[in-house]
Amino acid sequence: YVILKSKDTIAQAQIFIYENDPINYTVIDMRDSVKVYTDKRKVKYVRREVSGTIETSLSEAILEQGIDYNVTHNLANVYAWTIDFSRLQKKDKFKVIYNEKYINDSIYAGAEPIEAAFFEHNGKPIYAFAYENDSLKSIVDYFDEDANNLRRTFLRMPVEYGRLSSRYNLKRRIKHYGFKVRPHKGTDYAAPIGTPIMATADGTVIESTRRGGNGKYVKIRHNGTYATQYLHMKAQKVKKGEFVRQGDVIGWIGMTGSTAGPHVCYRFWKNGKQVDPLREELPQAEPLHETLRPEYFAYISPLKEQLDCIIYPKVLLEEEEDLLTLNQEDGIKQN
Asked: CATH number of 163-275: 2.70.70.10, 3.40.50.2300, 2.60.120.470, 2.40.128.270?
């Protein structure tokens, strides 16, 4: 914040300016009657292209290029329904197009949402283009090159960057219990205590309590077919009867109940029976309406061409090395 004072000997405070964020600010003018208003700095938008190859993690591949961490977060959200980011493979590739914001041409003020992206996971290419499919509600979704919605009715996992630590397994045997069969009907994601747990789909909270080995948990009914449950929470953020949206934080990773380490046990019901969410063909969101497709294909055409022309940093280095080798060989031949 900044306080502007009068220039006389009293030095009385006259204007108080509070910076809400790097762009927006609030002014309280107390010189005569008190006046309050908000304003924003002039912003310059700079087009940015980013590409990379996964060696260890998505965040490391982006951060090592000096890119805003929010770009990692945004990219993970774009592909949250189609890629399990806890199981990325080495040599997976990505390309991203977005805008960066600058104040006074030099002060970085954040990244805009991703306009277009490409992700190659396990050899499968997946394009993503932001498009407003409902102008009345200003709803923007991400669609592939065939106008299919990348969003699913359910997120693949209830935490952004948790590690899959134990799968759904009806034949599990545990040494502590004499190797007797003790079915595990949940899918565990390990993460540090306090990591936010998200609702994987829209729905109504039907339980938010603590019970036995489950510890503190939340259960959500999504419709007549599906329900989900989230166990071992440190604390719940929602109460019974609340309606939650996909991605809303409903609690935090903890170690309540029967657990050897901090994680969330994610349980998935279909028609009243617990099933393996990683093997379920999750319902897909509505594709782009037929009437919007011609305009959509015209819109994404230059973006797709731009994505296809982006070169991966390491590929560029290899090409430069190959060119240097050829030049050296030509030099030898000429001599």
From this structure: 2.70.70.10
